[in-house]
Amino acid sequence: MGLKKEISFAFRRLRHIFKVIFANKLRAALTLAGISVCVLVLTVSVLRMDSSFQKLRLQFSFMPQNTAILRGDINPEEFSYFRSAFAGIGAVTYKKAPDYTLQTNNDQRIRTHVLGVDNNFLKTYILDLSINTGVYSSTLTSGRLFSENELAGMESAVIINDSVAFYLYGNDNPLGKSILLSAENGEIKSYVIIGTIKDSYDSASSYVSYLDGKKEEYDINIYTTEKNIVTTSNSYGYALLFVSDMSLSLLEERVADYLPSSSVSVYSYADIKDAVEENHSMFVREFVSLIVIIVVCEMISLSIFMIFAIKERVGEIGIRKAIGASDNEIAVQFVTEYAVLGGIGTVIGCLVGFFINLIMLMSGASYGFSFVNVTIVPVLLIALFSITIVTFLSLIPALIARHVKIINALRFV
Amino acid sequence: MLELKGITKSYGANTVLENTGLVIEDGSFVCIVGGSGSGKSTILNILSLFDTVTSGDYYIDGNNVATEKNKHHLYRKSLFGFVFQSFYLLEDLSVRDNLTLPLLYVKDNGVSDMEIDEIINGFGLTSVAEMPVKTLSGGEMQRVAFVRAIINNPKYIFCDEPTGNLDSANADIIFKFLCGENQKGKTIVMVTHDTALIERAKTQGAVIYGIEERNIVRLP
Ligand SMILES: Nc1ncnc2c1ncn2[C@@H]1O[C@H](COP(=O)(O)OP(=O)(O)OP(=O)(O)O)[C@@H](O)[C@H]1O
Ligand SMILES: [Mg+2]
């Protein structure tokens, strides 16, 4: 009986608080907007960061433990030695690569990188240490890998990216068609397309903008087995990896033997992981400090808004106290009001933020983000955090309200 | 019984009441009159525990409340009601929410929703019951304030110029309500400088007090 009364009393007060909140629509709207925008920014930022974590974890799960990386500048001769010495090498970064020109059907000529590879090149990962820290690899989308004859250099074949294939042939099947490649020395040669591979996340967009003439830089890669073509990259920070069963020390020995004068160095899987994680955590640290700054600014502005809102309500506080409300009852009223507003604002902010992130994930899906799971846990944590913070901040207006003196307050009515 | 004993009230250097007293018997109708700035509202604010004395004692039913400030809200909640010139309503809230506001701070108020409807009806407020108070006329607002003052069944009702913002017809209504409550045994303490109202109060047996040189004095 006593409990039932307590509950109905609490319910009566809560219903009153809802009425008070929404009796002043402008004030309610401003408070809700302030809270939900902050929560939205927080939700989108944290979910983006979460996707980037997931992406990294996944990329490393693709990469075998015995992956090694070679990084450094070598010349074409060194490279051919190198390739004959290590089975399974995909490619090595090389800065001063010659340009190749791809002659299109309508006599357009586009500049490309031509990479000399073997069938292991799909196991080759691109390590990108720029802002989109990550390790990228690709998969065959149509056709086949190189045959014995092609690997031996007796027949000329190429594998190209999906978007290049689409650019050249539209929806026609590119397999079996020939392309002309001319080297810087003017030598022109014809290659049969035997396969296509999936565009990686960042290559697809840059191919498209280059092919559309919107981008001066080119990073179109065409893969062939030509022994005298040196694998190239216009890289600033990325290097190519390959899988090797050799121990790291043996690899280093072999590099020293075959390429005594080169600056190529050998890194292990763990080195790569460390480098990427270091880079990633730096990025995360910056991101987190940015979020902290945003949250602190929002907290300050919300407190200021709360203080002004309470100043506007001094008359109301006076009336309530005159009627018999105790100082604590007034304080509890304001804390409850802001807890309710915080709850509603948080739900709005979280929902909108969640859907914005979902849309961003879906639009990124075509570029390889499809494997990122949509997670709820961070959203729930943000919600909890936000409601706690708003309720905590409401102690400021609550304390101000607690100390309002009736006789002074009634002058504001 | 309310009893002010040897009270002084100053605002900084301005002493409004000095070592004076007042006794208000239960069930009486008390009027406090005087010129503007003489300290009428000051007395009422002290009696209704909206303000505190600078020195002196205030007894409510024998308890000295001048010292126990943390209990003041309990007296305001259970014993007092007020009707003031400027209504003091929560303008954004509905009539119903305003007049039931005191019930919000009493756990066991024993007033049912049906009784509230009856009261609203009895005071002719049914048609405006769900409207925000800010849309009401002055007369209606003062009726809401009056209902709010009595809904908790208080022992004492304090009125500061209750008819000050009203035309004579509405002033008459409020005054009749007050006389009605007084006849039911409630104590009314009213501040006014409306001489017609004072004369009418006298015919109801009101006791009149004035303020002379910072002292509360009984007037004939
Ligand atoms: N909060 C306050 N701070 C400073 N002085 C005040 C305060 N309240 C009242 N006073 C002063 O106390 C004196 C008495 O004021 P009070 O409001 O009691 O007058 P009153 O008799 O009700 O006058 P009126 O008929 O105009 O309402 C005035 O001189 C006023 O200036
Ligand atoms: Mg006055």
What's the oligomerization state? heterodimer
Let me know the number of strands of chain A.
Answer: 12
Tell me how many strands of chain B there are. Answer: 10
Unique bound compounds: adenosine-5'-triphosphate, magnesium ion
Question: Biggest sheet of chain A: strands, sense, closure?
Answer: 6 strands, mixed, barrel
Which ranges of chain A are low-confidence, i.e. pLDDT below 50, for 5 or more consecutive residues?
90-98, 128-134, 228-241, 365-369
- Side-by-side strand order of the widest sheet of chain A: 2-3-10-7-9-8
- Provide the gyration radius of chain A in Å: 32 Å
Helix content of chain A: 55-70%
Percentage of residues in DSSP E strands of chain B: 25-35%
| Count of helical regions of chain B | 7
Mean pLDDT of chain A: 78
Give a structural overview.
The complex is a heterodimer of chains A (about 425) and B (about 220). Chain A is an alpha+beta fold. Chain A contains 13 helices and 12 strands. Chain A has helices at about 1-25, 25-60, 75-85, 150, 160-170, 200-210, 250-260, 270-310, 315-325, 325-370, 375-395, 395-400, 405-410, and strands at about 65-70, 100-105, 110-115, 125-130, 135, 140-145, 155-160, 180, 190-195, 220-225, 240-245, 265. In chain A, the strands form 2 sheets. Chain A has a 6-stranded mixed beta barrel. In chain A, helix 6 (about 200-210) packs across helix 10 (about 325-370), helix 10 (about 325-370) packs antiparallel against helix 11 and helix 10 (about 325-370) packs antiparallel against helix 12 (about 395-400). Residues about 90-100, about 130-135, about 230-240 and about 365-370 of chain A have low confidence and may be disordered. Helices cover about 30% and strands about 25% of the residues of chain B. Chain B contains 7 helices and 10 strands. Chain B has helices at about 40-45, 70-80, 95-100, 115-120, 140-150, 170-185, 195-205; strands spanning about 1-10, 15-25, 30, 55-60, 65, 80-85, 155-160, 185-190, 205-210, 215-220. In chain B, strands 6-7-8-3-9-10 form a 6-stranded mixed beta sheet, sandwiched between helices. A 4-stranded antiparallel beta sheet of chain B has the order 2-1-4-5, covered by helices on one side. In chain B, a hairpin with a 2-residue loop joins strand 1 (about 1-10) and strand 2. The radius of gyration of chain B is 17 Å and the shape is globular. Classes of the chains: A alpha+beta (about 425), B alpha/beta (about 220). The interface of A and B includes residues 24, 322, 325 and 405 of A. The structure holds adenosine-5'-triphosphate and magnesium ion (MG). Adenosine-5'-triphosphate binds near residues 14, 16, 39, 40 and 42 of chain B.
